[in-house]
What we know:
By secondary structure, this protein is α+β, with helices and mostly antiparallel strands. It has an 8-stranded mixed sheet with strand order 5-4-7-2-1-10-13-12. A 5-stranded mixed sheet has the order 15-16-17-19-18, covered by helices on one side. Helix 13 packs parallel to helix 15, helix 23 packs parallel to helix 26 and helix 26 runs parallel beside helix 28 (826-850).
Amino acid sequence: MPGENLSRDEAGERAALLSVDGYEVFLDVRSxxxxxxTEPRTFRSVTTIRFRAAEPGTASFADLIAPSVTTxxxxxEELDPAAVFDGARVALxxxxxxxxxxxxxxxxxxxxxxxxxxxxxxxxxxxYLYTQYEPADARRVFANFEQPDLKAPxxxxxxxxxxxxxxxxxxxxxxxxxxxxxAETKPISTYIxxxxxxxxxxxxxxxxxxxxxxxxxxxxxxxxxRKSLAKHFDADDIFLVTKQGFDFFHDHFGYPYPFGKxxxxxxxEYNLGAMENPGCVTFREEFIFRGxxxxxxxxxxxxxxxxxxxxxxxxxxxxxxxxxxxxxxxSFADFMGSFSMVEATRFHNGWVTxxxxxxxxxxxxxxxxxxxxxxxDIRDLEDAKLNFDGITYAKGASVLKQLVxxxxxxxxxxxxxxxxxxxxxxxxxLGDLLSVLEETSGRxxxxxxxxxxxxxxxxxxxxxAVYDAxxxxxxxxxxxxxxELRPHxxxxxxxxxxxxxxxxxxxxxxxxxxxxxxxxxxxxxxxPALVLVNDDDLTYCKIRFDEGSxxxxxxxxxxxxxxxxxxxxxxxxxxxxxxxxxxxxxxVAVVMDFAGRESDIGVLQMLHAWARTALxxxxxxxxxxxxxxxxxxxxxxxxxxxxxxxxxxxTWARFFAAAAAxxxxxxxxxxxxxxxxxxxxxxxxxxxxxxxxxxxxxxGFADEAAIxxxxxxxxxxxxxxxxxxxxxxxxxAAVKDQAWAQVVESDALSNALVAATIxxxxxxxxxxxxxxxxxxxxxxxxxVWAERxxxxxxxxxxxxFPGLQDDQATLDAADGWLSSRPDAxxxxxxxxxxxxxxxxxxxxxxxxxxxxx
Length: 853
């Protein structure tokens, strides 16, 4: 990574000097299918850039990461590649007012999901390519000015092997055999250009819309995946959600989709959920479901489809100037994904998932030492890479949800329409958006921004009630704690038991300002069993309970009839557990009592994840074994009680496999695999088989031969990932040594197999076995960060942190590494600091849980 970074100051200086008129990019990827090739396997990339310089005679540079450069020609003069190319930049001396740069290079195919990724399908041997660039990996494919504010139109030409199809941002303009030429794009940033190439399975549809001026807008739709996945590809549902999304955004944004066609490519070994390349959106192919999944999986896919579509306006049409304002696209896309999904698709409970899942990500990120304002201080590209986090996405989206409550829905949407109209194809900063919102809402957006966008941290809201002798409320106040006391528009709900149900009987909305706010509207109400602050989830905050409400939840949480209120209470109890205010075993007990009554499948899946985290990280070590038996018994009980063939049954089956703790548990897992045991209605398909096999491998009940036999039945890309994970999970010192060497000491594995190996290596049942790697971790991470791509570096630093060695010695080792490496890369230090903080939090929670004994 050294030499590949780009600072904000450098980008600002270059933007002030240069303006780009256009790119012509030729890629020859016929080498992708060559049977033999030296490493790194390369392709030819020829880029022509036409640009202007505001100050003739000044020097600048272009960006390019490539094994070699053949020629560099600037304004007709050939430059010595050895003199002007250092592996990451091409020096451009003595620029003219108008310039033409031609760079002919040999660029490397990627195995890390960054740049032009090459994948060989183990099922049929076919080769597939796709690009992924955000924030700055287009320079791995063609020479460019790699920063978001130097937008330009692009013309791509790709020479591909016979039998392949090629896609890019625009439609094909002409084709001559294996040479594909694409129409010129609108002005866009480097990081959202795209090429997808290979023998993909491709399906088409058409979206039509009558515009206000009477004209008809037609958007050709395409969806693609690898040929071997075609039998699982439900393109009809993808197209349905896509059309519903276009209807919603056209209804509300007042600016027709501006990028022509709309292809959606589901690609292998993808690092992200998806990427908003205009006209050629890329998704992780795990959104193609090989077996039975729950509605939560379909909802998640719909949300991502709509998130990426929202980017066509927030991010692609109007783009942030620099990564400081990444929230201008990601926060809006995250919010609009849920907003549009709830209002335009069949997934009407999307705000429940948002409250329970997305906001949990935000709350965790906002309590780390690395927390930052939504408008962040991004010094360079490494900072930018790490800022695709829970604050930029989920907190930003939560704050926008608060803004809609604060400014009003109509004012918010009108502000968006004016924003697109004024800044189409341009770049913006925070003030550009605030100015239109101030116009449409009449609110002081500068004050709102200072509180919500330009400060970090999460506030805590707690209700305090005073009652008279008859049990009626004489005063109800909301107390606010936090470093920044923000204005919150909240609803306060009062709940009581009516037969078996816990229902809301009174509600008031109030603006919480300062440390104490009186909710006058609820004075005189009868004593509630539960007071729920932030009912309906209007704001972004942690909520606490009075003692009476907490006791009600311990006894009756499953009786809350409203799914959103129930999800908010679950999230609040989890926050109490993470903050060491509630013993982990008490949280596990509430899950065991009431998770079986949870109707929302997405919430249930989060409860399973939280319960496992509570047991593995937050419970006192002395209670883990007992807690594990209790949790596995609960999972098995609910599995047997679940309706046969239901998604709840499938969810409990997966949780039972993850929680298995006794010899009888493992015997049942083995029986479900080999067919000697049955659970009525449970279809043990390929994906569930792997979920059952991994715990067997981790506990020594499945050896290499058994894992190999499973791969023989599922010799696919997904099967290979599962096999690698199961192999690394085996409880053997030799296995762990091999896995460590494959990930840390070698770069032979692809990004997907690195992630699978790390996942298998880190098993909570093998703390003693992997303890020796704690010291090795701190000795290795600087070299890994220096020598590997940033994506692989992040995978290793986060995934292999010795958090399972949860003792003071490990915390001291992390502190020692941080104190002795003040000059380590800031992004690396941030990652270690975050992992260290999670460990410190776990130790605090364990002490709280131990005090329960």
